[in-house]
Request: fold
Amino acid sequence: MSQDNPVADRLLAEARKKTARQKSPALGKIALVIGIIALVASPVSIVGWVGGLAAIGVGIAAVRNPDTAKLAKIAMGLGFAAILVGVFFFTLNIA
Reply:
């Protein structure tokens, strides 16, 4: 970076940081972990619902990155399955 234009250097550094954050696969992995935990905990109906919604929400945010799109779609599927299992056990407890 040159000393001639410090504003351009600062903007370039910020753009590089933003690009590095967007390329990070962490959000997809976090979504997948939330989805797995939600599915495992879904027999407790409220935990399944909340965890499933969280997995779907984080999965939607992660699907924008092409590198993590596959993990995000799997996480959203797991979140949806967790919600369904939670609803099943909720209706089973009521009946």
Q: What stands out?
A: The CA atoms of residues 27 and 54 lie 12 Å apart. The first helix runs from residue 6 to 23.
